[in-house]
Amino acid sequence: MNPIEHLLGEDVRRSEGEQARRYNLLAAKLIAEFIKSSLGPRGFEKMYIDLLGEVTITKDGATMLRKIDVEHPAAKVLIEASNAVDNEVGDGTISVVVLAGSLVEKAEELLDMGISPSIIETGFLHGLEIALKTLEEIAIPYKNSDRNIMEKLANTCLASKAISFLAQQENTVAKLVVDAFYTIADFVNDKVEVDDIKIEEKPGNTSDIKLVKGVVIDKTIDNSGMPRLINDAKILLINEELDDKRTKTDAEIIITSPHQIQSYLTKESDMIKLKSQNIINSGANVVISQKGISLLAQHYLAKVGIISIKRVKENDLFWLQKATGATITDDLDNISEKQLGYASKVYEKFVGDDKMVFVDGCRNPKSVTLLLRANSKRLLDEYHRSVLDAISVLKDFFIKPMIVAGGGSTEAIIASRIRSKARSINGREQIVVQKFSDALEEIPLTIARNAGMNVVDTITQLRSKSFTFYHGKKHSWYGIDAIERKIKEMFSQNVIEPYLVKEQVLKTAVEVTTRLIRVDHVLMAKPVMYTHTHADGTTHTHAEGQKKHDHFDKLGKQQRPSHHYY
After folding, report:
1. Which of 6, 304, 398, 533 lies at a C-alpha separation of 20 to 30 Å from 414?
2. Taking the model in full, what pTM does it have?
3. Do 133 and 182 belong to one domain?
4. Are 513 and 107 in contact (CB under 8 A)?
């Protein structure tokens, strides 16, 4: 027995050196193999069914990787990398896993050739340095307010999503997303808050997806006596009860005569009447409250043709504030005209089976609503994820307005540049850098493979055409047109991506791979006590809880049902 095993004890499992490294690389490679079939416009969708039977169907890499529960720490590192890219730039979540998986595969080949892990790490970092420098050289700068480029970016992003079939329609989702982003962005101060785009979902016809220059509230107008439409709406947002006061703790009122009961009720109704009259006097014709509005208050407001909406979510109130220019009022005794917001119309409308209130046509809205429609909740969820990705891509361009072509053309150009640079590198590192360039080509090859193209023909043609980019014959971006299953010039096809996404994918993929290569010892404590859950939801811990067993009381009667193993 190895002396270190005496030191660690029997409860620790250990793998070291080459074995530990191989296991880690294998786990990362398997994750990449699992998700790579979803890359590109012809990529496939994944279906996940959770413990409760809830089904998720998605092409979004980060969403699927977050769903699956993996044990191996190396696989978890790759999933965390995908999440990091999703949080940072919002797109490229499959690309980073595919690239990392390809780098891992090349690392295994290099290890088989007898090249040490430290040289592999140095070579990959050198390759990354050349890749980032090349990316900056070939990226094309634009103004961050260029609406035409924004539409092309949104179209490219959505082309690989479930929502892509809507791209041929006149009122495309990409155009609506750009309109929404353009409305809320502050181009003077270079500031944007993407959370100001509210996304509402309702089952229905996909052709009814629309952008509202204001806020859609999933509520109904309070009273049937109120109008269903108000033009030239003057909106008052309140955060005070227009209802009977309720104390937070138990309270007791001691009454000694019937007259006192009547006085108490009269006083209460007088207070509500006074507040309602203050609202009427303010000139507001729409009242939206985060708190309650009593039937009595609704009666007073309805008599003069004022719409009221109660119990609105706090976030909705903030969105309304930004859209209408209103100020949230906490004191109904002192309402000024400056606190009122404006919308060209406020109306109630059936959306699917439910009524919703539209606050539309705001003068200079800094918050808008994208109303998504689809025939099922699962499709709506996927549309929502797709739209969030498109918004993130626009934000990336807004932050750093530089673009490159998509379809794997950027990776092909960078790979060609690295391959030519590798010739000037001495020693074994040259082989590592060449393998790095091969790994980059896995992005266009995966797009081609998912589209059903011949991989050998594709890589031969792609290398030939990408080589011309740096040799003066032609300044072009050749990549994979998955729709027509051909190698085409992608920039002229308007297939473009933000610089920031490519940069983040390259950095994260190399960082993850080098981290896995550096690991040469894996120590795992054997769990003695196992936490487990019974069918009735009871969770507890005891020895050998991982084995199938029943619990019995002292009398030998079965105390709990047997376990469910998920």
Report:
1. 398
2. 0.83
3. no
4. yes
